[in-house]
Amino acid sequence: MNPAQQWFEANPLWFKTAVFYQVLMRGFHDGNGDGHGDIVGLREKLDYLQWLGVDCIWIMPFYPSPLRDGGYDVADFTNIDPVYGTVDEFRDLVSDAHERGIRVIVDMVMNHTSTDHPWFRRARHAPPGSPARDWYVWSDTHDRYTDARIIFIDTETSNWSWDDVAQAYYWHRFYNHQPDLNFENVEVQEAMLDVLRFWLELGLDGYRLDAVPYLFEAEGTNCENLAPTHAFLKRVRAEIDAAYPDTVLLAEANQWPADVVEYFGDGDECHMAFQFPVMPRMFMALRREDATPIAEILRQTPEIPDNCQWGLFLRNHDELTLEMVSDEDRDYMWNEYAKDPRMKSNLGIRRRLAPLLDNGRDEIELMHAILFSLPGSPVLYYGDEISMGDNVYLGDRDGVRTPMQWTGDRNGGFSRADFAQLYAPPLMDPVYGYQAVNVEAQLRTPTSLLRWLRRFIALRKEHPVFGLGTLDVLETTNPRIFAHIRTFRDDVVLCVHNVARSAQAVELDLSGYAGRHPVEMFGLSRFPRIGELSYLLTLAPRGFFWFTLEADEEDAADD
Amino acid sequence: MTDLDAMIDDEQLVEWLTAQRWFASKTRDVAEVTVAEILTLREDPPFGIGLLEASFHAGTHELYQLVLGVERGRVALDALTSPPHAAVLADLLREQTVCESASGTIEFHWLPDAPPLPERTTVRPIGAEQSNSSVVLDDAFVLKAFRRLEPGENPELEMLRFLSAREFPNIATLTGWYEMHGDLLTATLGIAQEYVSDGRDGWELALDELGADPQRFLDRLHELGEVIGRMHAVLGSDLTDPDFAPEEPAGEGLSLLTATIDEEIERLFIRLPDDEPALEPIAGRGEEIRDRLQMMSHVGTGGRLIRHHGDLHLGQTLRTPDRWVVIDFEGEPARPLTERRRKRSPLRDVAGMLRSFAYAASASEVLRSNAVPADWEIRARETFLEGYFECMEMSLLPAGQRAIESLLGIFELEKAVYELRYELDNRPQWVSIPVAGIERLLEEPIG
């Protein structure tokens, strides 16, 4: 049985109303003073995460790895890089988190391994056609599967790389040091299931499945979202459901909504999937002062099975991904949000939330408000809750992976090590540096973003309608306003957001709710009764209102 | 399926459970009550422990302990305080029985150093049954069974075991316990400890003596301060036991605490009624209180964190002719068990005790019509703290008198804010007590 069960209510749908918090362990807190964040350090910060109101921590890869791709290049799936600690320490971390009512999921890279993984070493040395060689995808030529796109276009020119040892090409959808596993091979499938069971036995609550669209390949296709990939994921789900209830599988499938929903199957595949296309449209809406792109993509988003949920984020952790927009929109976004070419990365922008929004407090709050109001479970990226900045001069996407800023003391309270020992320099610039931006200072300031966000998380969690309710995007005559209604049983919530830099008025057709009173959810102020005529609201620049629409008690008494 | 299982009428469970005094969630809407598990301890006549699961409409659940026995051919749903059945539990404790079943194990323990539990024990239920149920065995031991069960070791067992092993004299020494290890739950089910036959409830004693001889009670409070100081010193003395070793607080620990209290104050003041005269001394002073809290929070690191009583007040003490006895180490019953086991500053206990002096002074006037001297509460605080600091290991506290006072003030404010909310909801006539406490913190000079 899953050891988590004693700590939690049996609730297989817990993830539908959860708030997730994504942690880069290396950058969060250093418990042993070696300059790298670690498991012990994260354990020491569980009180903070509980205070913040986090329901589930998502830990980015901690497996032994040559770290050529932030740990997504795994060299051993059932172990932990010693720099983070041990498997036993990890078990303690999970059980400490459970005691606080916090669940833990980790990244699992199913599609590929590092070239350092013993499976790959064995495969490249094994004779062609042998069972060991067959764990990866080999070819004598590099012109197979030519319809598959190249993902990391900055660095890779082909999805095939030549291996001198094997004297053959191997297939890789990502970096050339990340060979794809051959899921046609039943032994690979079994090995991956064993890996999943290994961590679930320790009490883990689920996985964020990295890069799942690419498990299988087939000639004449783009090698994404293929039927056998879905079939395998369904099998994973069935095995996990049977042995580890209350577990979540969160698919990272950076695809259009119509393709992503296939990862839910008929409620028998992944429990969750990220809603990628909404994110860039929120940024677009903010810059263009036009909410239409958000409303449009939501209208294009299909219904999902009742036992499934979207994962929502303001950033796909290391970048603002721009794959799911048109070329024209991408140019617009690059132009607006990545003025320095160093800020670009592949098809995205490698910057943190606060710098993307010019550190505008109203903008940061508004973006969270829109995100929290949508159907799905929000995922926060570590450091964004205190508006941490980034460092575009660090290589790859390390610029958004700098040490968490806990205090204004040495190394920002991240580590007791010498500065030179730190895995990455903490930010020290006057605006975003740790002396200006840190948890300690924001805890002590009642009006800080951190304190605001905590109250906002608590507010969202008081209203399960945000996780469970239906979405009805309202037509407005003012395109600068994004307004919608969420409904779950008796709870009706109206959310109105102004994406413009100027104050706006909007008339909403709320005649379906005539007789109800909007009650503003933060301050509990009652607004005028809704009548048959359209309802007029005025909003401050980048302002928003959330209301519960409450039946008038006197009217109800008359019924 | 056991015999016991077959004999239980599931239809009646909801009504029966919600009528019990120890049922913790009386205000919640119970969807269903089921017998989640029965562990049979004796076959003939059938006797066992049952786990009752109450599910709520919100989708959550709670587990409760039942002791199931058969009386006159019918199952007794809750035989815990019935002498013949409690006697069976006593037998199991004495024999240190380990009962295995398909779904788990129940282990009974009697400490080797404890006085023996005689055969054919006399059993006497204790009338005042609240969140737990207790019986007196052989006029020498109390067997206390926990009702609402949560995973993990009960803090009362841990604390008593720790203090008993160090021969701390001011507790009712632990003599035994029983626990289950199962698929559904691993938890402490009950404990046995020395029965303090000649103890008087500290709260009742305070109310009486405040009328008869306030000075005498002050002397007793000095002694109580010494006892609590010594208790904290012992609790923070073992560096090798990970459950008890003192810890340095995380850098942001104190800020998390004050931020939480700050938001509670804000929420409370948004909703304060305008028409309550007792609120007059603090009306409109929410910002002032928050500023004061902010100032008090500048105390450096806030000292070390240790295991402590967790719900300390006069009602958690007994007074025998020759000593104080501290009882009920379970912590605040409304909080989750894991939170009650967490290490915190020992000053949290001290603040709880100081707040109870304020209540005692008022209650003695209201309930006993005693004329309590106007400065009694202040003298009580001073006297108690004097005794406490004499015996406490000061390295566990923040460095410097000012830092100690500030941290103590934070915990007192936290308590008083909680009390104010509670009294407004439940006992409007007592509102003035927390109000006076908050007002006192506001008036106190800083530094």
UniProtKB/TrEMBL annotation, chain A:
User: Coiled-coil stretches, from where to where?
Assistant: none
Arranged from A to Z, the UniProt key words for this protein are: Calcium, Glycosidase, Hydrolase, Isomerase, Metal-binding
**Catalysed reactions, semicolon-separated:** D-maltose = alpha,alpha-trehalose
Location of the Glycosyl hydrolase family 13 catalytic domain: 22-421
The answer to keyword Lyase applying to this record is no
Q: Which domain of life is it from?
A: Bacteria
Recorded hits in SUPFAM superfamilies, A to Z, give: (Trans)glycosidases (SSF51445), Glycosyl hydrolase domain (SSF51011)
Listed GO biological process terms: carbohydrate metabolic process
Please give the Gene Ontology molecular function terms for this protein: hydrolase activity, acting on glycosyl bonds; maltose alpha-D-glucosyltransferase activity; metal ion binding
What's its EC?
5.4.99.16
Q: Which Pfam families match?
A: Alpha-amylase, Malt_amylase_C
Q: Does the keyword Transport apply?
A: no
Q: Which NCBIfam families match?
A: treS_nterm (TIGR02456)
Homology family: Belongs to the glycosyl hydrolase 13 family. TreS subfamily.
Query: What is the designated name of this protein?
Result: maltose alpha-D-glucosyltransferase
* Native organism: Capillimicrobium parvum
Q: What lineage is on file?
A: Bacteria, Bacillati, Actinomycetota, Thermoleophilia, Solirubrobacterales
From TrEMBL, chain B:
Residue span, Maltokinase N-terminal cap domain: 16-73
Q: Which GO terms describe its molecular function?
A: ATP binding; transferase activity
Q: What pathway or pathways are given for this protein in its record?
A: Glycan biosynthesis; glycogen biosynthesis
Q: State the Pfam families in the record.
A: Mak_N_cap
Its top-level enzyme class, in one word, is transferase
The reply on keyword ATP-binding is yes
Q: Which SUPFAM superfamilies match?
A: Protein kinase-like (PK-like) (SSF56112)
Q: Which domain of life is it from?
A: Bacteria
What keywords were assigned to this record? ATP-binding, Carbohydrate metabolism, Glycogen biosynthesis, Glycogen metabolism, Nucleotide-binding, Transferase
The chemistry this enzyme catalyses reads: D-maltose + ATP = alpha-maltose 1-phosphate + ADP + H(+)
What is any one GO biological process for this UniProt entry?
glycogen biosynthetic process
InterPro entries reported for this sequence: Kinase-like_dom_sf (IPR011009), Mak_N_cap (IPR040999)
Question: What EC number(s) does its UniProt record assign?
Answer: 2.7.1.175
Q: Note whether Membrane occurs among the keywords.
A: no
How the protein assembles, per its UniProt entry? Monomer.
Please state which protein family the record places this protein in. Belongs to the aminoglycoside phosphotransferase family.
Q: What is this protein called?
A: Maltokinase
Q: Which organism is it from?
A: Capillimicrobium parvum
